[in-house]
Amino acid sequence: MIRISGKLDNEMKIPGAALASTIKVLAGLGSLGERVLKEHGVTKIDNDKEYPSHLRARIFEEIRTRFGKEALYAIGLEQGFLMLSLVPSIGKFIDDFRRKYKKELLNHSNFSKNLKILDQTLPAWEKVTNDYLGQMRNNKVRSKLNFIKKGPGKYDVPIISSQVVKNKDFFEANYSVFLISMFSEMFDIKMSIDEENSKDMDNGFSKYQYTITFKQLQKTRSYKEHLAEIRFDANQLLLQRVLEEAEQQKNIVQRQKEDIEKLSSKLGKYLPPQIHKALFSGQFDTGIATKRKKLTIFFSDIKNFTSSSEGLQPEDLTRYLNEYFSEMTDIALNHGATIDKYIGDAMMVFFGDPESKGEREDARACVNMALKMQKKIKNLQSKWRNEGFYEPFQIRMGINTGYCNVGNFGSEQRLTYTIIGGEVNIAQRLEAAAPSDGILLSYESYAHAQDIVEVEELSSITMKGINREIKVFSVISDFKSKKLSKDKDEVSSVKSKKDTLESRIDKLEKLVANLVVNKK
């Protein structure tokens, strides 16, 4: 990152027109220039104002970092072409030179004469250049350059530049457009920088030490064609770097996407799926907020956990517990439950938020879930016994329907999505009172599921903080299973009756046959 001095009074200023032309030639790279200016509070450029040089330096730094020095060179060329029309003094000088030496420009072979023309032209060209560069200044220093002749066609060119040394490719391309426009039909022009003796100064300036050589041209050429070739090659390199950068960005985005998916998957194990989905789709508010809503609450735990676990090795206990919770969780999610928490060997889920099918359907879904769990537990118990688990887990369950406070509870630092209220305590109390592998329902839950389960009403219970008696119903069986069993019995009965009728007909036929024989 380029360091910007805090002494803004001494910071180099650049004309608004120069900054605007830079933004214009950056159009091919999207809104990069406008974005950097906006970050620094500049939304519109006034050509008549002056702007601190760090704005352009920051833009060039991002271009160099993302697309390399090739991008700076290509942009420098484009700004050079733009300046031919935007800076009248430069454009006029070049046009006047070409008119004055029109014949000489057609004869590149007279090297000595061309060198004299060069020596006569450079002092005036230096002044025109410095009139423009001098607009980049502070109260002590101005940008400028000098042509110091070191031999025929060879010049040392010290420059006070408005660009840091790392951005030299921009200056080279920019200035080469002017030199090529004047002299490339006479000379083969080379610019080379002495990097050891080039360094950044304070307040945005830099000292460049260049050597520019004008060698004899070996064949006739058009300066326009020469510039077009240079421009084409520069744009090809820029395009290559842009494509490489785009591929890099694509790979970065893909890696970020994969990382987010991995993180999402990990977070999903700690959050209810409904909340997890809503969070990542931006539909869930993470503020501290709750609402009052009628829900159906389910609690389950392992009744004989202590006695069952005492005879198990820790590894086996962990395996059986994980298998139990995995199977129960799959059933809960398949029925639309919101997993609230696991508390030791207990499990708490609820229906009705953040997604609900209505109070009745939520309650019925909860009861169906409990019946499915009850059936699955019996299968697991048989499986575990075959694996050597002598006293497998016995599960008890409690279900209640009532109004709860549901939402985000906690602090600004950490939140928990959960439910609280007396109705939650009722569900937990029912679970604690349930028999092994049994299900207890409150009347509020049973009322919505009367056609699903056959129950036995137990004695009502009272609880501190609850101003009503809680009617308790124990699930004996579900009607669906009972109907299947009844249908089997009826089929068996019909079959039995059919067999009896056929037997009686056989006996009757035998009796008739005997009578006929005896009569004969």
What does this molecule look like?
The protein has 520 residues and is α+β, with helices and mostly antiparallel strands. Helices cover 52% and strands 21% of the residues. The chain has 15 helices and 16 strands. The strands form 3 sheets. Strands 9, 10, 11, 12, 13, 14, 15 and 16 form an 8-stranded mixed β-sheet that branches. A hairpin with a 2-residue loop joins β10 and β11. The protein starts with 12 loop residues before the first strand and ends with a helix.
The gist of it:
By secondary structure, the chain is an alpha+beta fold. Helices cover 52% and strands 21% of the residues. It has 2 domains: 8-241, H-NOX domain; 288-484, Nucleotide cyclase, GGDEF domain (Alpha-Beta Plaits, 2-Layer Sandwich), CATH 3.30.70.1230.
Supply the helix-strand structural class.
Answer: alpha+beta
Number of helices: 15
Q: What is the CATH fold-level name of the largest domain?
A: H-NOX domain
Helix coverage percent of residues?
40-55%
Please, what is the average pLDDT? 86
- Largest sheet, strands/sense/barrel: 8 strands, mixed
Q: What CATH first level of the largest domain would be assigned?
A: Alpha Beta
**How big a fraction of the residues is strand?**
15-25%
Number of E-state strands: 16
**Which value, in Å, is the CA radius of gyration?**
45 Å
Weakly predicted, low-confidence segments: 1-8, 484-498
Q: Which CATH architecture of the largest domain would you pick?
A: Alpha-Beta Complex
N- to C-terminal separation? 128 Å
Net shape:
elongated
CATH superfamily of the largest domain: H-NOX domain
